[in-house]
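Protein folding task:
====================
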Amino acid sequence: MKVALLVNPAARAGSHSGAGAEAAEILRARGIRTTIISGGSAAESRELLRTAVEMGTDAVVVAGGDGTVHLAIQEVAGTGIPLGIIPAGTGNDFASTLGLKELDVSAAADTIASGRTRAIDLARVTRTDGTTTFFGSVLASGFDSKVNDRANAMRWPRGGSRYNIAILVEFLTLTGIPYEVELELGDGTREHVTGDLVMATVGNGRTYGGGIPICPDADPTDGLLDVVLVRPAGRMRLLRLLPKVYKGTHASVAEVSIRLVRSVRLSSPGVTAYADGDPIGALPLTVDVVPGALTVFSP
């Protein structure tokens, strides 16, 4: 097996070259030809990866976090080329979706060397200009995208705790945002939601922000996406909602509604959406599920 191992030194959490080199050594010891590729920017890394795919690599491995995984997904989605992950990022939410988040470099590399794969769904974002992007975990818009804005701008602390701090700071100025949401439900019926929302989130996976289970029952193999809508309420009531969000029990709160959908269109003025932790585009955006679009190495 020939493997292209992508390492992105430009990732926010810093260089992952150590994890990448260790993983490459383990894979080579298992008889897997492994070539490390790394660009000085996301665009350069993606171009190098695209070349590796065109030249016939048997698999792609990422040593990094959600942003680097997101980059790789764009090149391997729909190709049947399996994707492996060495979790080495800040949040590692997509690795969590695959049951890889807690694995060290050696165990993650062994998962790839075992050759066991499975197919999972991806979500596809379509912008107003017709361009598309895939994501694997969660798309956030509204309050949670503002949290991402703030967390990304923070130099301290590193790790998932910065999301917790960003949540508390953004909560101080929390207001409802006018939305229009068009849903195609799993049974093919349609639903139209208008009015103020605190946030509108679309999940292929369960977690974002380094493990927050915003879509607690999302299943990346069910051919559906989970849409979580949160309506405004008093600030103290929403503050009491936060512990439920961290436990994944917020579906029981009256202001929260969760829908299983084939597709959803989100519209709101001045709102930027994030997917897999990175900005994906300004609303309006349409998100639909692509069943079985990604093959992954799985424990």
